[in-house]
Design brief:
By secondary structure, this protein is an alpha/beta fold. It has one domain: NAD(P)-binding Rossmann-like Domain (Rossmann fold), CATH 3.40.50.720. The protein is 42% helix and 18% strand. The chain contains ten helices and 14 strands. The strands form five sheets. Strands 2-1-3-4-5-10 form a six-stranded parallel sheet, with helices on both faces. A two-stranded parallel ribbon has the order 6-9. Helix 1 crosses helix 6 and helix 2 packs across helix 3. The protein is globular and about 55 Å long. The protein starts with a strand and ends with a helix.
Length: 296
């Protein structure tokens, strides 16, 4: 039976990973108190060795995008240094690493979906540290899948969807930016996709990880703005008989934040579909499933 170590198990992606992977083997999901990515290299390696995983899945990250601008060292340790330590451990043990990254490695200056071959150019500290984490993984000889995703949300955890749900009960009107475009992605679909990849590896044998190592984009299909995403959430809420606020579109300039965001961060997921025959449904279709999961 495979022992799958999920780091970041208490987060929204980690929760869904545990759910999706449970049929494939033993899922180890230590809390942050059990294994912190702030640990020195020797201590982190010792804790990993004690768990004896057959595969490491890193869904842990420093994701406070604005706060990262002033907590650069902490963001760098968790997003850049720790992934390298995980990859080094996996290289020594000859086991694979699956690591989640972000659309924010790109600067948003394109007007068509970003491919894995496009040159990253992050415009905030969060994106810089996540890109550094990718690069340090690639610098090792560990078998790895780096999965870049975007605008992750679900019924659990801190995310845009749950924030809008809460504000719907508190506000009669909201202003939401409409000039940042991306692809909202359900955390459950990420968990299911990772389970598919691991099941595929089980069928194809140990060579799977070496021959498929690389960086892949994994998001729900389609694209939208934060404004249209919010409006879609409120439309669903109204259909279910709940009150919803009026939403006014505004520009990013009208809503200044410490960390700049890419204007267009939609990811092209064609390579993942080509290599693994995995593709996620359109974000709009998916939203209704999330509403059901959230019991709205």
């Amino acid at each position: 039976m495979k022992r799958m170590l999920v780091l970041g198990g208490t987060g929204q992606v980690g929760y869904e990973l545990q759910r999706s992977l449970s049929t494939l083997g033993e899922v180890l999901a230590p809390t942050q108190n059990d294994i912190s990515l702030m640990l020195p290299a020797n201590e982190l390696e010792g804790k990993l060795t004690a768990l004896r995983p057959d595969i490491v899945i890193n869904a842990a990250a420093y994701t406070a995008v604005d706060q990262a601008e002033t907590e650069r060292e902490k963001a760098h340790q968790i997003n850049a240094v720790a992934p390298g330590l995980l990859a080094s451990y996996c290289e020594k043990q000859q086991i694979p690493l699956i690591h989640f990254s972000t659309d924010y490695v790109f600067d948003g200056t394109k007007n068509q979906p970003w491919k894995e071959t496009d040159t990253p150019n992050p415009i905030n500290v969060y994106g810089e540290t996540k890109l550094a984490g990718e690069n340090v993984i690639r610098a090792t000889r560990a078998s790895h899948l780096i999965l870049r995703t975007s605008w992750v949300y679900g019924a659990r955890g801190k995310n845009f969807f749950n924030t809008m749900k809460r504000l719907a009960t508190e506000k009669s009107s909201l202003s939401i930016v409409n000039d940042q475009l991306g692809a909202p992605t359900w955390s459950r679909h990420l968990g299911d996709a990772v389970a598919q990849l691991i099941a595929m590896a089980g069928k194809q044998g140990p060579g799977f990880w070496q021959t498929h190592s690389g960086t892949y984009h994994l998001t729900n299909a389609g694209e939208t703005s934060w404004y249209d995403f919010a409006q879609a959430i409120f439309d669903e809420m109204q259909s279910a008989g709940h009150p919803a606020p009026e939403v006014e579109p505004i520009s990013s300039d009208d809503y200044p934040v410490p960390a700049p965001r890419p204007a267009y961060s939609v990811l092209d997921c064609g390579l993942l579909e080509e290599r693994f025959a995995i593709s996620l449904p359109d974000w709009r279709q998916t939203l209704s499933y999330v509403m059901q999961d959230a019991k709205v």
